[in-house]
Amino acid sequence: MASGAGRRGTPGTGRWWAPGRVNLIGEHTDYNDGYVLPLALPLGMTCTAAVLPDGKVRLRSRQAPHRPVDTTVAALGTGGWSELPAWSHYPLGVLREFERRGHEIPGVDLDLDATVPIGAGLSSSAALSCAVAIALRDLFAPTVSAAEIIDIARTAENVYAGVPTGVLDQSASILCTAGHLLFLDTRTGATEQIPFDLDAVGLSLLVFDTGSLHRLVDGEYARRRDECAAAAAQLGVPFLRDIASADELDRLADPVLRRRARHVITENARVLRIAEQLRTGADPRRIGPALTAGHASLRDDFEVSAPPLDLAVDTALAAGAHGARMTGGGFGGSVIALVDRDRADAVRTTVREAFANKGFDAPHDFTVTPSAGAHRL
Ligand code: GLA
């Protein structure tokens, strides 16, 4: 199906947008068949795309102006990826995956520009993969479903970029809607949009991008996945999702596997509890303690936090935040804090001062409201 006719403007061209995300709660649960509760950021990736003839692929990124890529659809099917810049594996992996699934790409020009910070644990890579995926869908394969787009984007990351992520980030980028949290059961794919209007109750969600290293490729993320799989196997279940209570973990002899599993089990319970509180209209301030408990669990049981993340959490709480936690895969990245709107500036200042006192780089902070998922502009 190669129509190439754009809905607006010049046929065969257009602009598409996909957001990054913060995950309110439900960290390292996605590859355990569990629950997640993300929201889309107003920051993300724009992809300007145009049909090209003769199988040509032209790829540019405003964030990597010195590394343009000019290749062909055919060349991408025959290897040589190691010579391409690492960032290009995401968009080109998406393209290749469309082809592999039988959707012919006659040639395409892709121009990318990010507003989401790269490597901050805010899903810049999923924003990139998803923006390209919906552009290719609309230009060349309009019958591809949202579920398949998520799968294509995730496969691009797993196979072509070599990062063994779960499905959280791509699902958030494609399925989130403005004003809502996305409650997703990663086992069944069932979703629910839960209203999350913090402004109406005088609250703000602050994000602190700590600027510290966030590299899931480094092997620690994959190791956590392996540890979870090993714990599930020893407990005789397909996934840790299938363990109802942390009491069952005494059966695990290895204390490390016990801690990893305890994080996943208690985290799933926190997602369910917070989703239930919010869907029944509780004051969102009441979810604060579970957010903070989620951070302690990631720090102590899952061991994916980092000193700047702990400092941002502890300082935000001391300055009056109702709850705070790292968000995303960890090993650096970003922290979220739920604060009264009229305390937001004080919390920001206190965290900045604490970072300066410790000699850490100043965090980049901003407020987020749940924004729209991926769409054509
Ligand atoms: C990264 C991965 C996700 C998820 C989170 C942790 O963002 O891309 O799939 O596992 O870490 O919740």
Which features would summarize this protein structure in a list?
single chain; 377 residues; alpha+beta; Ribosomal Protein S5, domain 2; Alpha-Beta Plaits; 6-stranded mixed β-sheet; 36% helix; disordered N terminus; binds alpha-D-galactopyranose
Question: Can you tell me about this structure?
Answer:
The chain is an alpha+beta fold and 377 residues long. It has 2 domains: 13-192, Ribosomal Protein S5, domain 2, CATH 3.30.230; 197-367, Alpha-Beta Plaits, CATH 3.30.70.890. It is built from 10 helices and 13 strands. The chain has helices spanning 73-76, 89-100, 124-140, 146-160, 168-175, 220-235, 255-279, 288-300, 307-318, 344-358; strands spanning 13-23, 35-36, 38-51, 56-61, 69-72, 108-114, 180-185, 191-195, 203-209, 323-327, 334-340, 364-368, 375-376. The strands form 3 sheets. It has a 6-stranded mixed β-sheet with strand order 5-4-6-3-1-13. A 4-stranded antiparallel β-sheet has the order 10-11-9-12. Helix 9 packs across helix 10. The chain is globular. It starts with 12 loop residues before the first strand and ends with a strand. The site of alpha-D-galactopyranose has 11 residues, from helix 5.
